[in-house]
């Protein structure tokens, strides 16, 4: 599994997103992890897939927001 993650996840970028998460965002992410665990344990493959897809989309939104924030900071410092 960890070998697959190396190819699927940009670890430094993920850590940057974690550092910029609000408490509510972090709690929501942890809630998704628990719901995913429970769906998998209960054999609910379709539910687990739907939860994972939503969790990934939320992560994508975090990466995009971080990129917007970083660009805005760069433009402010360049002025």
UniProtKB/TrEMBL annotation:
Gene3D superfamilies reported for this sequence: GntR ligand-binding domain-like
InterPro entries: TF_FadR/GntR_C (IPR008920)
GO molecular function, one term: DNA binding
Family matches, as SUPFAM superfamilies: GntR ligand-binding domain-like
Keywords, ordered alphabetically: DNA-binding, Transcription, Transcription regulation
Protein name: GntR C-terminal domain-containing protein
Source organism of this protein record: Mycobacterium montefiorense
